[in-house]
Amino acid sequence: MLLAGRELADGPWVTWLRAVHAEVLLFGWTVQLVIGVAYWILPRFRAGSERGNAWLPWATFWLLNTGVLSVALSSTLRGSSIAPLAGRVLETLAASALVAHALPRVKAFRSSI
After folding, report:
1. Is the C or the N end of the chain the one with fewer CB within 10 Å?
2. Is 113 helix (H, G, I), strand (E, B) or coil?
């Protein structure tokens, strides 16, 4: 639809769709791929659960997706400046939750060398 928009009359829907596409592709897919790879590839704990408590990765998932939806849909709510800001805050909290979950695994790896 975005490529067809170049040939069709450029309406406001093309600009809206481009913004939604960029947000969903960058944060909704690429960042989640990076998070999934980091979660899987970081060293495992020797005792207990391999990857630690699962509530922080799930919190990362829900915070990131809620933030992506908030930012992507905020382009339809013209004049609302709180939705994209709230979405970016949620995405930042998601990154913080991932770091909080991954840090003990990285420290454990560093201390075993």
Report:
1. C
2. coil
Q: Could you report the per-residue pLDDT of 33-92, keeping only the tens digit for each?
A: 999 898 888 866 666 667 777 889 999 999 999 999 998 888 767 666 788 899 999 999
Domain of 29, in residue numbers = 2-111
Taking CA 39 as the corner, what is the angle to CA 33 and CA 41, rounded to the nearest 5 degrees? Answer: 95
What's the predicted TM-score (pTM) here? 0.76
Mapping DSSP to helix (H, G, I), strand (E, B) and coil, where does residue 13 land?
A: helix
- Cβ atoms of residues 101 and 60 within 8 Å: yes
Exposed, middle or buried by CB within 10 Å (0-12, 13-18, 19+), for 35? Answer: buried
> Into how many domains does the chain fold?
1
